[in-house]
Amino acid sequence: MTVSPIKKVAQATPVPMARRIRGLSDRTIAWIFVAPTIFLLLAVNIFPLIWTIRLSFTNFRVNRPNNDVEWIGLRNYERILTDPGIWSTMQATAHFLIWTIVLQVLIGFTLAFLINKKFKGNDLWTTIIVFPMMLSPAVVGNFWTFLYQPQIGLFNYVIAFFTGADPASFSMIGDVNLAPWAIVIADTWMWTPFVMLICLAGLRSIPDSIYEAAECDRASKWRQFWTITIPMALPFLMLAVLFRGIENFKMFDLVVQLTGGGPGNTTTLTSIDLKREAFERWRTGYSSAYAVILFVTVFGLASIYVKALNKVKER
Amino acid sequence: MKSNLFTTASAGALLAVGIASAAQAEDLTLCWAAWDPANALIELSKDFEAESGHNMSFEFVPWPNFADRMLNELNSGGQLCDLMIGDSQWIGGGAENGHYVKLNDFFDANGITMDDFIPATVTGYAEWPKNTPNYYALPAFGDVVGWTYRKDWFERPELQTEFSEKYGRDLGIPASLEELKDIAEFFQGRDIDGTTVYGAAIYTERGSEGITMGVTNALYNYGFLYENPETPYDLDGFVNSDGAIAGLEYYKALYDAATPPGSSNWYMGENIDAYRSGQVAMQMNFAFIWPGVEADETVGSGRSGYFPNPAGPAGQFAQLGGQGISVVAYSEKQDAALEYIQWFAQPEIQAKWWELGGYSALKAVVEDPGFATSQPYAQTFLDSMAIVKDFWAEPAYADLLLSMQERIHNYVIAGDGTAKEALDGLVRDWTEIFEDEGKI
């Protein structure tokens, strides 16, 4: 009679240890498996968060190791919330966030709707459309910097072709009125394919039988669109908005590469401002308070939004 | 103070064990910005490797990220760099926060004296507090903002005639900032050989230090002072004096009227590109670019000329650039690093440094009778180094710089408010910073 390997191992295990393992409850074993992950989460996420909250009540500056660290209560929060400069970066962020989401959802959904139709070269077009989101944001920023160049940039020449204006007569990234739109356009170019893919997944999840039933009921295409397509794709659209909203709230690399936050502060988003405070001005306590405020804002908005998303899904 | 004593003691102890007798080969890392002079330094350092037996490694970071990367390194007590060629404004923080080794004892023991270096570079790159004999660096690379111009365009008879008729003087090196603006406006939008060209490329960059390094060349010459010469940190009426306001208005007028479209975020690299590609008649830039301009196929070989920053109503000054070389206090190879400094300070090494494209600050090199004619830009370099002023070198320099970047960029590029409002705002920002620092 042959002895199985598992049995061999079991026999080789010293009796006291075997007894000990046999004595562990399922719950304990589960904890043993989960413990390393929890430890990592605590070390990498929770501890820095708690430490940041603690620092936000101090005047600590990481570049002044010899200075005394004073507990200053809510002074950092008060300074941030009463600083008009911070509110203007919030406005710039809101402008960027709202317009990129609106444009990406509109264009992304339209593209998904078109790509969802069966036509020749469908796969090729999908690949071409998805291409921008595969690039690094730093590359895209650099690339659009050249496109926006007044003397040699293709963008200015295209606009000039349609409007008859002199290409060198306007600068997308140097003009306070145009620069906020310059970053919206570049981000929309890059991330619309992402929204399109999510929408495409949504559209393809709608069973054909529903449309067939609507056809039997002689519902027009327009009515089918508004009563079947949109409601059934809505959870996916909302998911796309959530993803893009969170991503764009912390947008940094693309905008830094394109405009550096300028001209003036017109494209200084909160993430850029926070980085300057933390790693250029080295106001560690102040920037910790700033980070906490942003965290609470994003967390609060995302929570409300996820609740709304769940309600839509339940319908 | 404690850290100063410690670093001084460290340097002394190192001397005691005998630097010259260091027999162990070390791997030394030198940190600097990634630019042309850094390549020259690699070439130069090969001699050091051959002489000392030490191996040299280099960590070069592009200028826009240089301060971020290296100050992070210093603040975290990192041991990446044994030698640091840090920007001149870091000297205060480097000294007060104990990042740099104090070099006085080392200099004394090795016969290195700061009297041998151009005074402005000693004050700018090596001393802290300023104008005191406490040295934390050896002047390594003298640099200053100056101007490069298209000599071949300036010499065209038809342009000379037209300019002369319009302005009543010859088209040549401007004697004042107002004349410079006239010339820039003269070239703005002009067709030269079928290409539209523009007046001048000036510093406008927002993210690091660009626009500050540019605008100060106008501000100084119109009467801007960092503080009351009699009372330190007394800013009101000096930073925002009538002269300073006029200087800032001048810089904005120059930007609005005579720079290439889209040049709203330009610094050294962009200005070089614009000049080399034939977009502009003049460029503001640090002197380090001049060897590259001379060697350039399109604009070099006599097609370009150089002149110091022109005078304004309050005098003639130029923004100091350049750096000193320091030993990082966190390095475990300080003896070998000091050996490098000792080697670098030698007159023959400094002479070779100049030959390779590095701007030596050693008097023996720059006061050599053949120096002024050794390169087409050598005399301009000397003239410019004689009129330098530098930005704050306080430990809080980064705060001070960012406030200035923001205030100046918002006014000059974004057209936000008036020059007076911008400078009044700067006084408020700087006052708050000095209050936080306990200086006021």
| Main beta-sheet annotation of chain A | none
How much strand of chain B? 5-15%
- What's the order of the H and E elements of chain A? HHHHHHHHHHHHHH
Structural class of chain B: alpha/beta
Mean pLDDT of chain B: 92
Question: Would you kindly provide a brief summary of this structure?
Answer:
Chain A is built from 14 helices and no strands. Chain A is mainly α.
Describe the structure.
The complex is a heterodimer of chains A (315) and B (440). Chain A is mostly helical. Chain A has 14 helices and no strands. In chain A, helix 11 packs antiparallel against helix 14. Chain A starts with a helix and ends with a helix. The mean pLDDT of chain A is 89. Chain B is α/β, with parallel strands linked by helices and 440 residues long. Chain B is 46% helix and 14% strand. Chain B has 19 helices and twelve strands. In chain B, the strands form three sheets. Chain B has a five-stranded mixed beta sheet with strand order 2-1-3-11-4, sandwiched between helices. Chain B has a five-stranded mixed beta sheet with strand order 6-7-8-5-9. In chain B, strand 6 and strand 7 form a beta hairpin. Chain B starts with a helix and ends with a helix. The model of chain B is unreliable at 1-22 (pLDDT under 50). The chains are: A mainly alpha (315), B alpha/beta (440). Chains A and B meet through loops of A and helix 3 and helix 18 of B.
